[in-house]
DNA sequence: TCAGCTTACGGCTCACGTAACAATA
DNA sequence: TATTGTTACGTGAGCCGTAAGCTGA
């Protein structure tokens, strides 16, 4: 067995079981990839792929497991190369961050600024996606770090670090009647049309569960992955908005009034995660440090946590 | 980079940094291994080994980390091969168990018997060692599974499964005065010479801590790694013995009297552990099952636990 | 008939082994 | 001087690419 066989295997698995596409991605010809797969299957003594005629159509049960170990083997060899790069050159390289829109827009800017001042020659990439996509990106080494609230921390192939806690705030136009209440309750919230996040993003599951447990049904008139979209529709009078506390920015959102809702919903924890077999280069470790330092300044609306 | 370079690296690291010995182990000539290392260091761009003149004398700091990832990469590729073997042949193979003397002598026999009836063609090996050695054997894939009470469960590169709980019993010659007591206390134990386990084995640390916390100092006249040695010296009248409960066997130890001491010491948990990146073949998984089933029959003296 | 995988074959790279050399205890 | 590691070089295995063959949609 050798590493090229494993990278070929992964490429084919990632390209819908198309050897041609995998070959293209690897800058090789079809036949070479085909041979790698054949040799690998011959050595292992089992079919990794399910074939319909000559065409590949999926992974066999054993193949699924094999791909898993192949990913990890490759991750480990990549780690070795990264160690080398860390020794030679401590200031060049790249940093690929996976983040949801909320993180990228409301949390990352000061971190990124501090980081790029410290490492001006490091190429920074922000990859956006849903929490589930971010987990996959981290596992498949499409990003170095993923930052979000959901889905991380559960996957066995990721190391996750708790970063900061947050809860929700209500935003509304200044003339909205709900702002006259001295105490906002879940029942009160149900009386108004609500704009908030879609399922899968920024604590939506926990949000909806809180109503369900109280046997209430909120009127969600619109949901979006993106806090900015929510704000826009609140401004347009579609209803009240319920967003993550860190997404309300006084200087830009002064036309909207906010109210803390942390007495109504469980606290959420945002985490940073990376692949278990991954060696983090010095600047990547430093980014995590800077992130933790920066979010610890958000005390007003959230509590920072230490490493798990 | 390729896998042969990594196996060469590991072989050199495991052979006291001797390229010649590593080459011998790998059935290659010195120069070939030397070249592998050179090429690897060239690609990584760093010295992995510390050299005194031409001779290798140790690992550089980066080298230490590299070796760690190399082990894991190799473990993952081995796992892939094992998956293949599982597919082809479900009844042949081998099973290498690491265990302390106590486990091998008092717990394993019925498990081994059941296992070898089920898989008569599987070669069974029992590797004995201290808990620390067993951890290393598991990490370096010298055994498939390690079974003991100490040291497992802490190491980040091992998966550990809790198996059964046990405590200690006192053994003494029938004429020993301590047997006249209705309740044995730590103070009473301190009045007599004691024979028990050495540090590092079978709960000795926890045993000694119990006395220390009570500000007592037991008279340990002899300590051994091996319950049989302890019994021999108790029989010879050197003192009372304090051993693990599962090591007292009525049929063979009828010349000694035992007393339960579980009111005096914390309970211990024996665990099974294996390397994280290791794929366990079907028969190896089955061995764990058989082990768990067998120890759950030890209820009289211990409580079985589920998977962690 | 086309898209996609496999097989056959030639060329080239690269790794192993032999052997000479260098250096350390 | 014996042991151990490096360097030089020839040979052979193995991998890539070209090209032809095969197979199902």
TrEMBL record, chains A, B:
<dbReference type="Pfam" id="PF00126">
    <property type="entry name" value="HTH_1"/>
</dbReference>
<dbReference type="GO" id="GO:0019344">
    <property type="term" value="P:cysteine biosynthetic process"/>
</dbReference>
<dbReference type="InterPro" id="IPR000847">
    <property type="entry name" value="LysR_HTH_N"/>
</dbReference>
<dbReference type="GO" id="GO:0000976">
    <property type="term" value="F:transcription cis-regulatory region binding"/>
</dbReference>
<dbReference type="InterPro" id="IPR037423">
    <property type="entry name" value="CysB_PBP2"/>
</dbReference>
<comment type="similarity">
    <text>Belongs to the LysR transcriptional regulatory family.</text>
</comment>
<keyword id="KW-0238">DNA-binding</keyword>
<dbReference type="InterPro" id="IPR005119">
    <property type="entry name" value="LysR_subst-bd"/>
</dbReference>
<dbReference type="InterPro" id="IPR036390">
    <property type="entry name" value="WH_DNA-bd_sf"/>
</dbReference>
<dbReference type="Pfam" id="PF03466">
    <property type="entry name" value="LysR_substrate"/>
</dbReference>
<feature type="domain" description="HTH lysR-type">
    <location>
        <begin position="1"/>
        <end position="59"/>
    </location>
</feature>
<protein>
    <submittedName>
        <fullName>Cys regulon transcriptional activator CysB</fullName>
    </submittedName>
</protein>
<dbReference type="InterPro" id="IPR036388">
    <property type="entry name" value="WH-like_DNA-bd_sf"/>
</dbReference>
<dbReference type="GO" id="GO:0003700">
    <property type="term" value="F:DNA-binding transcription factor activity"/>
</dbReference>
<keyword id="KW-0805">Transcription regulation</keyword>
<keyword id="KW-0804">Transcription</keyword>
């Amino acid at each position: 067995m050798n590493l090229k066989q494993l990278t070929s295997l992964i490429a084919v698995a990632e390209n819908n079981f198309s050897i041609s596409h995998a070959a293209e991605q690897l800058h090789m010809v079809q036949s070479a990839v085909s041979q790698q797969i054949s040799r690998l299957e011959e050595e292992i003594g089992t079919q990794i792929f399910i074939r319909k005629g000559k065409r590949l159509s999926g992974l066999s049960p054993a193949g699924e497991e094999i791909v898993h170990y192949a990913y990890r083997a490759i991750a480990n060899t990549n780690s070795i190369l990264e160690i080398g790069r860390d020794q030679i050159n401590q200031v060049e390289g790249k940093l690929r961050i996976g983040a949801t829109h909320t993180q990228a827009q409301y949390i990352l800017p000061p971190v990124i600024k501090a980081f790029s001042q410290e490492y001006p020659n490091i190429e920074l990439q922000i990859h956006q996606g849903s929490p589930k996509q971010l987990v996959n990106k981290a596992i498949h080494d499409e990003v170095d770090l993923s930052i979000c609230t959901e889905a991380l921390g559960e996957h066995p192939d990721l190391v996750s670090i708790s970063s900061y806690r947050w809860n929700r705030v209500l935003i509304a136009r200044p003339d909205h009647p709900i702002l006259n209440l001295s105490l906002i309750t879940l029942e009160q919230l149900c009386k108004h049309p609500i704009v908030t996040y879609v399922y899968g993003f920024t604590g939506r599951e926990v949000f909806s569960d809180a109503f369900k447990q109280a046997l209430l049904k909120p009127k969600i008139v619109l949901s979006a992955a993106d806090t900015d979209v929510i704000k826009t529709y609140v401004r347009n009078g579609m209803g009240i908005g319920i967003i993550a506390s860190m997404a309300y920015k006084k200087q830009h959102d002064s036309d909207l009034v906010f109210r803390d809702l942390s007495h109504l919903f469980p606290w959420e924890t945002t985490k940073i995660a990376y692949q278990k077999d991954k060696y983090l280069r010095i600047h990547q470790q430093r980014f995590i440090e800077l992130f933790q330092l920066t979010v610890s300044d958000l005390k007003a609306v959230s509590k920072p946590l230490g490493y798990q």
